[in-house]
Amino acid sequence: MGKMKKVSVLIPCRNEVQYIKSCIHNVCSFNEPDGGFEVIVIDGLSTDGTREILSHLESQFSDLVVIDNSGKTVPCAMNLGIRYAKGEYIVRADVRCIHPSSYLCDLIELSERTGADNVGGVLVPELGNTYTQNAIGLAYKSRIAMGGALRDRGDFVGETDTVYGGCFRKSRLIEIGMYDEDMVRNQDDELSFRLRKKGGKIVQHGKIKIHYFPRSRYSQLFKQFMQYGYWKVAVIEKHAQQASFRHLLPALFVTALLGLSVVAPFNEYAFAGLLMYLVSYLVAVGLEVFQLTRKDDLRLWPGVVAAIVLIHVSFGIGFLINLITKTLHRKLKYFESLSR
């Protein structure tokens, strides 16, 4: 057994050749907390050149370790990393994020000051090189597109449902059973709920800001949120108390849209209802997006509208697909593995 550390930074990874080098350089340059830290990349058998870059980086950074994740999903990666870790604290970092240099020190200070079981900051979308990525990034800032825990709420400090990544004591994670490996997506939500159910406290600090590279194509965004919707059903099924009306809204929206669309060609009232339904929805989204884009770039307005509509529709479709497949006692392989 190697020397114990104050913090073990875990980085789940699979086929991230575009971002992995900058991620490792970012994480390995963190300010060192008392007791030091190690960096563990748990690679899901990457096939795009990511592993070759990691092998080269291992020779540069003495506290960097790469281990294999044959399960290829994030919860499997996290559990492997937790078991391997030599740190008192476990901090998750994602490949597509840029963390502040004081990240570990800020998290440890917040954890020890508040006594919380999990602490974290907020995600701030990073502007990309394309119109689409910038539009998707701005959509993430919308109150109607993303939950509060994932949005920048200024300098908010206080208890919340979940946080990005998280900083936990290793002993506490083991005590509550670590991550549920059946949750391909939404594993953070499920773990956070289980933690709170057992009396734990989750605290967010708005001054800890993590910059995030959003998806660069609408097709990737659609797949991402369709999986989120699909796996939200599994979280609610396991923890019914976590369900809220906002989780059901996208599915209800899609159901009403499909129902009216089927009847509209045969019934003038249904056709009128469909038009009113779509117009009122698009006006509401359009006004919200106008408030966002007028502060940044109004040229992004149509792109952000498209991104928010895709988030709602894809989440709703994924949610409904899970309900239907459960009724038919079937599983779809597409949703059982992580998509990019």
Break the fold down into its secondary structure elements and pairings.
Layout: E1 5-13, H1 20-28, E2 37-43, H2 50-60, E3 64-68, H3 74-84, E4 87-92, E5 97-98, H4 103-114, E6 118-125, H5 131-139, E7 157-159, E8 167-169, H6 170-175, H7 187-197, E9 202-212, H8 218-238, H9 245-263, H10 268-293, H11 301-327
Parallel strand pairs: 1-2, 1-4, 2-3, 6-9
Antiparallel strand pairs: 4-8, 5-9, 7-9
Helix pairs in contact: 5-11, 8-11, 9-10, 9-11, 10-11
What's the short story on this structure?
By secondary structure, the protein is of the alpha/beta class. It has helices at 20-28, 50-60, 74-84, 103-114, 131-139, 170-175, 187-197, 218-238, 245-263, 268-293, 301-327; strands spanning 5-13, 37-43, 64-68, 87-92, 97-98, 118-125, 157-159, 167-169, 202-212.
Our estimate of the beta-strand percent is 15-25%
Structural class: alpha/beta
Order of helices and strands: EHEHEHEEHEHEEHHEHHHH
CATH superfamily of the largest domain: Spore Coat Polysaccharide Biosynthesis Protein SpsA, Chain A
Q: Biggest sheet, in brief?
A: 5 strands, mixed
Report low-confidence residues grouped into runs of 5 or more: none
For the largest sheet, list the strands in their spatial order: 3-2-1-4-8
Strand count: 9
Report mean pLDDT, rounded to a whole number.
87
Helix amount, in percent?
40-55%
